């Protein structure tokens, strides 16, 4: 059952959780940059962070 849930929420849900972490005053973007640098290659990290910034800017507007 956990594998099915992971597959279901793996894509977009991770972005939602990342945005929640960014909006938390204790963590901000530094935690996301740190975690992404441990999980992905540097080129992928830059792409994912740019995508998160774009989402946050769209939410702000």
Automatic annotation (TrEMBL):
GO terms for molecular function: DNA binding. It holds the Pfam family hAT-like_RNase-H. Residues 7-60 form the hAT-like transposase RNase-H fold domain. It comes from the Eukaryota. This is hAT-like transposase RNase-H fold domain-containing protein. It comes from Zostera marina (Eelgrass). The lineage of its organism: Eukaryota, Viridiplantae, Streptophyta, Embryophyta, Tracheophyta.
